[in-house]
Amino acid sequence: MTATEILYLVLAFIAGIGLAGLHFAGLWLTISKLATSKHPGVLTMLSLLVRLSLTLTAIYFVMGGHWQRLLACVVGFFIARLVAVRIWGPNGNTKISGKTHGRDDHATREEAVAHGHHS
Questions:
Q1: In the beta sheet, which residues pair with residue 99?
Q2: What is the distance between the alpha carbons of residues 13 and 80, in angstroms, rounded to a whole number?
Q3: Which domain range does residue 97 map to?
Q4: Same domain, 84 and 101
Q5: Whole-structure pTM over 0.90, yes or no?
Q6: Rounded-to-integer distance, Cα 91 and Cα 62, Å
Q7: What's the CA gap between 53 and 59, in Å, rounded?
Q8: Are residues 60 and 101 in the same domain?
Q9: pLDDT, tens digit, 9 for 90 and up, residues 57-88
């Protein structure tokens, strides 16, 4: 493997990370607009179609006909996803509809169950 091929793999990996950032930023934007949308189902489906179309098209161009670049890009995408889920996922503190969910909420439920209160 030449230095140029390695460079292309690294760039494809970085592109995968960037694509994941854009993809999940679009998802976050969609979710943040659902509560005020008159047609949340349509918004969800359009968002999904646009995000998937853009992401898959970009991955196709990044791979440039080389399966190794495709693999590097997809690995970058999924590593970025794993990091995002670890930081902002179900166990992180998130605020949806004015109510805090996450670590603090989970601890509160455990304390309530320990004290005989059931939710």
A1: 96
A2: 10
A3: 91-119
A4: no
A5: no
A6: 33
A7: 10
A8: no
A9: 999 999 999 999 999 999 999 999 999 998 88
